[in-house]
Amino acid sequence: MTKEISKTPASQPVKVITTREQLNLPAEVKHYKSGKVRESFLLPNPKSLLIVTTDRISAYDVVMNEGVPWKGKILNGMSLHNFKLTEDIIPNHVIAANIFGSFPHSENHFDILNGRSAVVMRAEPILFECVVRGYLYGSGLKEYMKTAEVCGIPLPPGLIKASKLESPIFTPATKSETGHDENIPYGEMEKRLGDKKLAAQLRETSLAIYQRIADYALKNGIIVADTKLEFGLVGKKLILIDELVTPDSSRFWPLTTYKPGQDQPSFDKQFLRDWLDKEKWNQMPPPPTLPEEVIATTSAKYVEAYKLLTGRMLRA
Prior knowledge:
alpha+beta; 25% strand; globular
C-alpha cells in the first residue's frame, strides 16, 4: 500500500543549480572534483569533503545541457534516507547532513546549499560499480537474450523483459570517468582487485543493501528493479559512498502498473532515455536540447519517487 502524499511542489519556485560557479562558496572552500552530477569541495578539515548535488542530469554517460528542477535535493535527500536505513549493514561516508557551521560563512549560503549538500568522509574510491539486479532489464536483458547469462551468471530459460529474478544477482561493472561503464563477471572484478576477501565483501554487502531497500520500497509502492552502489576505503575500512538507491542510480517502477514482458513506466530517468532514443541521438556529445515538457515530466517523476519512498514533501 502506498502512502497518501500531499500536493507536488512543482508549482513552487525553485532555483536550478547546474554549475559550481552558482554556489559562490568562500575562498577557503577549495574545489576538489566535478562528477556528472556532484561537485566536491575540500574543507578546512582535510579528512572531510563538502558534496553538493546539482540539478544536472546525464544519460548514456553524457551530461545534458539543461538542469532538472528539484533533482539535486531529491538525490541528496533520498541518499541520506537510504544511508540511515542501511547503516547497520555497513558504515557510510556521511558526517553531517546539516552542513551549516562546518565551513567558513556557511550560513551565507543557506538558500543554495540547504537540502542539496552533506559533509562526508574523504575516502579512496573502489573503481567498480557494484550493480545488483532484481529484475531482467536494460543491458542485463540484452546479454541474457544472447547468452542466457548476465555477467557470467546463468539464468533460467524463458525469462522475458522485466521478469523478476528468483534471487537478486550481483553484476559488477568497470567505473569509467569518461565513456561507458562495462559489465564484467564477478571473477574478473575479483582478479582486478587482487583481493578475494574484499571482492566477496563488496558482493555480499551490495546484495544485503539492495534487499533491505527493495523490501522497504515495495511496501511504499516502488519496485527497485536494479541499482548500482559505490564503495570506498578509509584506511582499511570499507564504507558506502556517493549516492544510494536514487532515480539516478536505479530503476524505479510503480508497483501498481508492473507487468512482465513490456517496457515499464518508471520514476527514474528512463523517460529521458526513451525521448533521446526517439531523437535518434548517437549517445555522444553534444546532447540534443531538451524540450520544457521533457524537463518538467522528468522532474515530476523524481518528485513522485521521493515522496513515495520517504513519505516527505520537498521544501524549496
